[in-house]
Write a structure and sequence with these properties.
By secondary structure, this protein is an all-alpha fold. The protein is built from 8 helices and no strands. The longest helix has 38 residues. It holds the Pfam family BPD_transp_1.
């Protein structure tokens, strides 16, 4: 600890936490965009789209994220393609997040009463008009709390990217520990930083759920 003070350790971990936050944002936003496209394919008419999305969701939910990271990083390497760790981590987490967000949002859409579909159909609305003006506004209110809650899982999931060499918070913790030989101090700070990132999201999800449920009942 002569060369590394407590502040040095914390400063290095906070610098690495920037990449955890950035990767989380990219994964969550990218997963949301892909998930929205998959959602419309899942609940749309036809057979090919729903079947494809169902298979996609089962594949990504039924396999470990760690394995998906390995495949994204080493899979293309078999064909002589050099994939940077940050790119493999981003792609894997986006596809993984999309699978879960698609199912979350599908459940929210299907929770809207069937009578809402029938009432809007009786008004002469087409499918897209029904979704835009009637179904999605109601589903959105239901979807906000679990969506915010899932963002916590995305933040935690970034820790696994250290296995393919992406230097985020947990990887930085290992590097600093090897340099300082103070694992208790280093990983104590790592746990504290993760808590500071995840707790506000979890609390926000709970608050939103209570507020939206009250608004729904009052409505």
């Amino acid at each position: 600890m002569d060369e590394f003070t407590t502040w040095d350790i914390l400063r290095n971990l906070l610098l690495a936490a920037r990449w955890t936050v950035l990767l989380s944002l990219v994964s969550f936003i990218g997963g949301g965009l892909v998930g929205a496209a998959l959602l419309f394919a899942r609940i749309g008419e036809g057979r090919i789209g729903p079947a494809f999305v169902k298979t996609y969701v089962e594949l990504f939910q039924g396999t470990p994220l760690l394995m998906q990271l390995f495949l994204a990083f080493f899979g293309l390497g078999l064909f002589g393609i050099d994939v940077p760790a940050w790119l493999a981590a981003g792609v894997a987490l986006i596809l993984w997040s999309a699978a879960f967000l698609t199912e979350i949002w599908r459940g929210c859409v299907e929770s809207v009463a069937r009578g809402q579909w029938e009432a809007s159909s009786s008004l002469g609305m087409g499918y897209l008009q029904q979704m835009r003006h009637v179904i999605l506004p109601q589903a959105l209110r239901i979807a906000v709390p679990p969506t915010v809650g899932f963002s916590v899982q995305v933040v935690k999931g970034t820790a696994l990217t250290s296995i393919i060499g992406f230097v985020e918070l947990s990887k930085a913790g290992t590097i600093v520990t090897n340099a300082t030989f103070e694992p208790f101090t280093v990983y104590g700070f790592v746990a504290l930083i993760y808590f500071c990132l995840c707790w506000p999201l979890s609390k926000s999800s709970q608050i939103l759920e209570r507020k939206l449920n009250v608004a729904h009942r009052n409505h």
